[in-house]
Amino acid sequence: MRLRTSQGRLKIEHSIIEGLRPLLERVLADNPPVRSVIPGVIRQVRDARGELKVRVTVPTQNGWKAIALGAGARQELFVSTALSKEELELAFARAAARLK
Q1: Which of 90, 55, 97 is nearest to 75 (CA)?
Q2: How many Å apart are CA 40 and CA 86, to the nearest integer?
């Protein structure tokens, strides 16, 4: 399957939970050290109600794995970046604040 891209940095293979795409596009636009974001599988969960939240969880070989929670679902995000965990969390928080 060929990947559809947004500015070549947001790679989309699956659908994205509601409200997440604008957040990811804002993070990519505001943070040049973020090389790419690849959304993963969506799973339904009971505790993902309310406002969209992104938690940076574990390091990967070329960046971080994050979990987006919202709209009754959770979605894995694989972020390719040289930013630290704290810097990436701050980038997601700033992007969320700008979208409100």
Answers
A1: 55
A2: 22
Integer Cα distance of 39 and 36 in angstroms:
10
DSSP labels for 22-70? Answer: HHHHHHHHH-TTEEEEEEEEEEE-TT--SS-EEEEEEEETTEEEEEEEE
3-class DSSP state of 3: coil
User: pLDDT tens across 48-94, in order?
Assistant: 778 899 999 999 999 999 999 988 899 999 999 999 999 999 999 99
Distance, CA of 97 to CA of 100 (rounded, Å): 6
| pTM for this entry | 0.86
Q: Taking Cα atoms as reference points, which of 16, 84, 82 lies closest to residue 52?
A: 16
The single-letter code of the amino acid at 99 is L
